Amino acid sequence: MRLDENILRIKEVMGLITEAEQPKVFEINLGNLFDSGKYNLNQQAIASINAAILKLREFAKKTPTTPVVVSVESSESKVPNYDREKYPSTGDRNVDFTDDKKLGVGDLSALRAKSIEDYLNKTLRIPNAKIAVVNKGAQGPNWDGKNAQDPKYTANQYVKLFAKLNIDQPKTNILPDIKPENVMTGSYFCNGKNSENAYAVDDTHAKQCSRIPNNLKTSLIATKALNKSRYMSAWEIKHNVNTTGEKYVVPVARYNFYWDATGKKILSITKQAFSQPTANTGAQILSAKPVSPSDAEMKYLMGIKENDPNGGTVYKTYISPYI
What we know:
Layout: H1 3-14, E1 26-31, H2 43-61, E2 68-78, H3 93-96, H4 107-123, E3 130-142, H5 151-154, E4 158-165, E5 183-189, H6 214-217, E6 232-239, H7 241-244, E7 253-259, E8 266-274, E9 285-291, H8 296-302, H9 312-319
Parallel strand pairs: 2-3
Antiparallel strand pairs: 1-4, 2-4, 5-6, 6-7, 7-8, 8-9
């Protein structure tokens, strides 16, 4: 290690790194890795991702004691997409472009990001790295029905990788005031009910389950589960009444699960953080950000009642089978 690298390492440990010395966010634009309607990785795409992984590792080596967040950002244009993995093109427009082969808006972007996320989980090999998905969905101008290859559309068909130092990475005890004895947890399901079998407000299930057909939303996960849908739409953790002294308890965090149309996959997960109400203001959503299905903090919180940092029964039943 060179002298200047040693100095930077020491300053980092002591918290003395200046803004000018702090490494910037590292971006790799992989462009359009996929053919039209495709979302599985072919050898050419894998070669591009492998080259990007080497660059990400070099970035991470510069500050080895600081965790890195690697984000997969994907986007699609507003040109209609058709699933060419399940339904390869035949060359016959009457066969290829039917409604049953059409993908929902944003689905192709999400599927592509998921393919890359799965590959990174197997091959990234950066210590303490977290992988997150940022699905931009459909962007750009509406399609005019003419040239789908026009640059004004193709410019929004891309995949990018970002590496960022996670200065605020939570430690082993992720939230010191969140302990088994002073928290409550709650679940929401695609049938519109919560874990108490009461009807829930729309923002806990409506958008999350909008793609799932109504007949699937009412299917139960097990006969022993009291009217619990097979599909979890949101999960939250909050202080119990004895801790806050409040009759109505605002969540500390809520995780929202957005499903595909088959009910077989969770396409994305968003974490919301809430402020607690004060004498002058009500509760506010402080942030809403995408998280990985393997997010360590989410699993830690889900398993906290069972002292299981790997998510406990909730994660193993409702999340891991669908990622």
